[in-house]
Amino acid sequence: MEKCAERHELSWEKVKDIDFSLGSRMLMHATEVVVEMTSALSRLGSLSEIKALEARINQIDDDASHILLDSARYLYQPGQPPLRTIIATEIFEILGAGIGHCGSLGGTMARVLLKNS
């Protein structure tokens, strides 16, 4: 999230009319699920609880892939300023990568619990 905020801060004038809020909210939700999973692991939560959280984070990751792609689609229309397109695409990719990392963490935590149960 910090990397995304840094990029936006550096280039806000070029991308001020682009809405990154949905991707940002999805990254926050994915992060919240990772925190829930970490908490569940630390108190030795049930496998079903962890699997449900893993399913939630996977759904967020899947939804984000489609939503971020749709959000960036108009950037490739003819007449869009190339620098603006590059900057916005990078921000969308950072958001997607962050959500993907949360999904990877969720999968790893689920496998750790499964291995140790």
What does this structure look like?
It contains four helices and no strands. By secondary structure, it is mainly α. It has one domain (2-115).
List the helices and strands and how they pair.
Blueprint: H1 2-15, H2 21-42, H3 47-73, H4 82-115
Helix pairs in contact: 1-4, 2-3, 2-4, 3-4
Compact overview of the structure:
The chain is mainly alpha-helical.
Characteristic terms for this protein:
117 residues; mainly alpha; single chain
Mean pLDDT: 83
Number of domains: 1
β-strand percent reads: under 5%
- Low-pLDDT stretches: none
Characterize the largest beta sheet: strand count, sense, and whether it forms a barrel: none
Rg, Å, rounded: 17 Å
- Classification by helices and strands: mainly alpha
Can you count the helices?
A: 4
Anisotropy-based shape: elongated
What is the tally of beta strands? 0
The proportion of residues forming helix, as a percent range, comes to: over 70%
The termini sit apart by: 33 Å
The SSE string, one letter per element, is HHHH
